[in-house]
Amino acid sequence: MLRKIVKIDQDKCDGCGLCVPSCAEGAIKIVGGKAVLSAENLCDGLGACLGECPRGAITVEEREADEFDEAAVERHLVAEGKPVPGHHHAAPAPAQHHHHGGGCPGSRAMSFARPQAAAASEPTGSRQSQLAQWPVQLHLVSTSAPYFQGADLLITADCVPVAYAGYHEDFLKGRAVVMGCPKLDDNQFYQQKLTELFIRSDIKSVTVLKMEVPCCGGIAAAARQAVAASGKQIPYNEVTIGIQGQIKK
Asked: What segments bear the compositional bias annotation Basic residues (predicted)?
C-alpha cells in the first residue's frame, strides 16, 4: 500500500543509536553500525524518531510499503522483552527485572538483586584508585595535556564505572581517561574534540567502554569517526558493559 514510512539515509547515519529508544514500536535497530528499519510493518510513519537524530539522517517519505501492523508490533516488543506502548493491549513478557515506565532503555527504571555481602575473610576498606589525571570529563580536558602523550586512552561512557565493579583494576589502570554521556551531551562535539586529541597527542591505543543501552553507542561512533578523521592508524577496541555489570560478548 502507499503510505508514509521512515527513511534512513545510510550515508548520514553515524550509528549513534539515539533514534532507537525514541521508536516506541521498536522498528529501528542498529546493524553494522547503522540504523535500519527492522521491518516495514513495525513503522507507523509518524516520525517520532526524527527529532532524536543529530545527523538529520531520518526523514518520512511516502512510498509503497507493507501496512503498519499493531499486532506484529506487540509480538515484536514482547519477543524483545520491551514494554508495549499504551495503545497496544498485549502484556509484556515476564522478565527478571522490575521496569517502571517506557521510552529510552537507558533511562528506564529497573531493580535487580544486589550481590551478597563480602565474606568476613575478604579484604575491606579503601582500595587504591588507578586514576592518574584530572580532569576526566571530555568537555574539560585539554587535548594537549601531557598525560595524553604516548598514552593508552580509555574513553568511558560515564555510567560504566558505576555498573562495572572492576573498572579501576581491569580498565583504568595504566591508561589516560576521558568520560562523557552520548545521550545527554553533544556527540558531534565529542567527535571533534577526540579528533583534535588524536591529532595533537601520540595516542598508542584506544579502548571504548560503553553500556549496552542503544543510546550509548554514540560515544563509540564518535570515537571511531575521530580515529578515522585523524588519519592515524590507532589500535581500537570496544567493550560493552551490561546494566548488571557484566561484560557483554
From this structure: 85-101
